[in-house]
Design brief:
Low-confidence stretches: 61-75
Number of helices: 5
Strand content: under 5%
Structural class: mainly alpha
CATH topology: Ferritin
Protein name: DUF2383 domain-containing protein
Radius of gyration: 16 Å
Order of helices and strands: HHHHH
Number of strands: 0
CATH architecture: Up-down Bundle
Number of domains: 1
Mean pLDDT: 84
CATH class: Mainly Alpha
Largest sheet: none
């Protein structure tokens, strides 16, 4: 896969990650789970940072095909997908993090050595994303255990 396509795929992924966490913050507020909003805000901001870093890299001449603004699906469309309960919110977050984990691993494998700075950036982002994946998975599992115990 060409380097510009790898960057474009990761940009789209991070747009979706930010969007899911933005929606999650709103949905958590509606179902009374305010304590997790700070976590979701942090992950939304991390996704926006990753997106800015990738766009800055693509601005160095690798790709001119990227859109300057993210394509954001309105939060209302996400609300139609599922009701705003903690279980469904975490399902969406976990699904996007699983996708991110796969896409970053694939991107790292495909970036060749002549783009060492991009490979370094991708490894940094993947490491941080993997920690988020583990955190979201842990929170999801805790929620499931709490529901079974309750």
């Amino acid at each position: 896969m060409e380097t510009d396509k790898i960057i474009e795929n990761l940009c789209v992924l991070n747009e979706h990650r930010a969007q899911i966490y933005r929606w999650g913050m709103t949905a958590l507020a509606r179902c009374g789970e305010d304590q997790l909003q700070t976590v979701f805000k942090q992950y939304m901001e991390e996704s926006s940072l990753f997106l800015a870093q990738l766009r800055a890299y693509s601005g160095s001449g690798l790709s001119s095909a990227l859109n300057p603004e993210p394509k954001v699906v309105p939060i209302e469309n996400l609300s139609r997908i599922t009701g705003p309960d903690a279980h469904s919110i975490f399902q969406h977050c976990r699904a996007i993090e699983q996708s991110a984990k796969r896409l970053y691993a694939e991107a790292i494998r495909q970036v060749n050595e002549r783009h060492a700075s991009l490979a370094y950036l991708l490894r940094q982002q993947a490491e941080q994303q993997y920690m988020v994946y583990n955190h979201i998975t842990t929170l999801y599992n805790c929620l499931l255990m709490h529901a079974q115990a309750g």
